[in-house]
Task: structure prediction
Amino acid sequence: MDEGRYRRHGMRSADRHDVTRRRFLRLAAAGAAAAPVVGALGMPRAAATARAGPDPSAVVLTAKPTTIDLGGRTARTWAYGDTVPGPQLRVAVGETLRVRLINKLPDPTTVHFHGIRLPNRVDGVPDLPLPAVAPGEEFLYEFENHYPGTYFFHPHVGLQLDRGLYGVLIVDDPNEAGAYDQEWVVVLDDWTDGVGPTPDALLAALGPAPGSSHGEHTSTAVDDVDRSRVGRTNSALLGGHGGDVGYPLMLANGRPPNDPETFAAAPGQRIRLRLVNAAAETAFRVALGGHEMTVTHTDGYPVEPVTGDAVLLSMGERVDAVVTAGDGVFPLVAVAEGKRGRARALLRTGTGTAPRVSARPDELDGRVLTVEDFAAAPAAVLAERPPDIVHRLVLRGTHRPYRWTINNRTFAEAEELITETGQRVRLAFVNASPMFHPMHVHGHTFAVLRDGQPGVRKDTVLVRPNDTVRVDLDADNAGYWALHCHNAYHQEAGMMTVLYYSGA
Ligand code: C2O
Ligand code: CU
Result:
């Protein structure tokens, strides 16, 4: 779009740089330099090294501009290689994952392994603690994996996540095999790049950035156009509307509804669905026509199995569910919750014609499972313990300027939430805004409190408007950990802070 918009965004990342520099200066002055923090990381052990030469055992992710096909439409975008989603990464518990990122984008980038508990220096958040990977450069991410489950990866720079830069990461537990016959990984996304405005243009259209004296009139006009395109509706599940951004397409495994992936199985087979919401601004309600689903994991961690008709995933959340395949052709439909659009794929176990694109499984309106329906499986329970420290995070936002805050500060203005190694930390997410926020913490898996007790384990939790969600975690992985809303537009407009503690 126009130069002003880019300049504005550029200014904001420069601000961030200053803040991070200030942080380090302050820490250095307090005698807590960055080096001991990295050296004192708990397990998984910090084996990460950025090596000079190529490592033949590493998986290569080349972030680059490319062209993809979306059901007959051609879209220019940025992706890992030439496919969306990017390559699926898979390791077994105890194994080390080595990922060599090659940056062929015109902008700096990183890879963040969402939900994975890893050493801080390979967490892939710019300047927390390492800088982003410059255009033309590369970086080796290397870490041991100790927690099985369904994860994904994406950049942590600007709105790059809202292009084609994402992929699924699965950590296999060898002891889990046999509980199902087949596995179907379905990654959901809201799509605009190359078929609608770029994500950066969409953000600019949402309203002037904080501190900008730019274009109130244009922003009003664009806002109106945009609202109608979103097709916003009220969602009881989200406690409000579905979002600010309208998308021309919703994708399942990189495919639009008119060109769905078909997954083949045999009737009676038990299929493990691994559902990932990689969207930037859209929550999905997901159902498989003609089937119930039994949820077994959320955000990688086991839950007491619970059976329902559909499941809700906000951005950054993952759900594993088992279905027993019927005989025929069935639509897996992910409706954009509280806004227009849907993604779909097909399960085929027998003969029959595919259901029409517009077919809406009744299950979508049946029992929809949400975080309140899940309880941690015994292996995932976080032992109860009184918190040593409570951080209250009040979530707010404005549209003019387009600014989302935690405790009335944007990320550029944020102070770290300080804690100490060994502490039990309670985070109280207090949503004082009329929109839902999927709140995500890096480097840890928290327990969502229910009736004051630690419940289901997650790394991303939906916080509805005017609601408060409390989570507990143990500070046992020292570093600078990003904590933010997983709505990429909210995050980019400020809704992020840092949880910090040094090694013991
Ligand atoms: Cu999915 Cu801060 O990340
Ligand atoms: Cu948000």
